[in-house]
Amino acid sequence: MKRRNILIVDPFSTGSFYAPILSKQGFDCYSICSSEHITAYYLNSYTGDGFINKKMLSPEDAVSNFNKDSIFSIISGSETGIAVSDKLSKEFGVYGNDPDTSFLRRDKYFMQKKLKEENLSYINTEVISRYNYDISHLPDYNGYVIKPCNSAGTDGVIFCKSKLDLKENIKNILWGERNITGELNDNYLIQEFIFGDEYVVDMISDKGKTYVSSLCKYSKGKYNGFNFVYESLEILDPSDSRFDFIISYSLQCANALGFYFGPIHMELILSNKGPVMIEAGARLHGGIAPLIFEKCYENDLLNTAISLYSGLNLSNKHSKKIKHGKIVFLINENDKAIIINKDELFSQFNKVESFSLGKILYKEGEYLPLTKDLLTCPGIICLINDNLNDLIHDEAIIREIFNNKTARIV
Prior knowledge:
Helix content: 25-40%
Structural class: alpha+beta
Oligomer: single chain
CATH topology of the largest domain: D-amino Acid Aminotransferase, Chain A, domain 1
């Protein structure tokens, strides 16, 4: 039997990009839902485009419905699908990551523990639960971070200035609630807050040989009383020798955490002691990042991943930047603001030279929350330009348009 079926587990967010492309290459793509607890945050991004099945299958359905020799590839479409993808890859005998070490690529505590064991830079991390949340033994750091062990994005992440602040925030934890991924918050991490610029490295591993597909740097600012609101993501060049030390460290982390086959999305802080990994996932970069990467890089992330899962040979080299690019995170600072008219908003965006594409994440007439993190970001805009100064200038214009085309209800 010819292998022509591809199973995509939790094809949400950027995981939805795979099937439309792979189906045009002659593959039959089937969507798998990893759990009945997947939240609306993910389910609402499911389009069904490119899939044979209209209703997503369960992992059990996949095992019973497909012969082992009919499966060509298995893909994790999002953070929630990592463990199930690993298990199904082993079940069907296709390339994938080891299911016995899935926890290293999903649980943020074990990620840091493994880095420490491998003598790589790591973040001091403790685990607390509803039954054991004593923090008296913790050193006095210059700030602390509380986060769920296995959530995603900035869901449930709290910055604390002091140990007293930390104690107060621990009291307010709602133990046992499901987080944005649908998993139970039975444990939280307490981490030392690391000061420095935040970078993102996206990689593709082909049977243990890993290539860098993108390198980006976040800019953050203080808005609405929150200190670390994302402003933009600047696209950098992985082939630039100035970043060799970041690339080298990232590749070592990927190897330590058992990334063997598929995409790797890694977030790091460049501290005064060098780069240190925050977390990593076996998935594509989220949002609309892969679409702007297509236009800014040779050997871009999405097309390299498509080549890997369709059995084509990779280029055996890191990506190279060919255009300046930036993802702009729109920020709402107006209480009771709404989007009046999306069409009018985008007609103004399209007049900006660097504008490439964008997405408003709220409906017309819907109240916009004050922006405090990525989950309350009202929209994302991609800018591309051959001239860096023009791109920076156009970012300011985009923000001015957004602020002028929303309404403040008094």
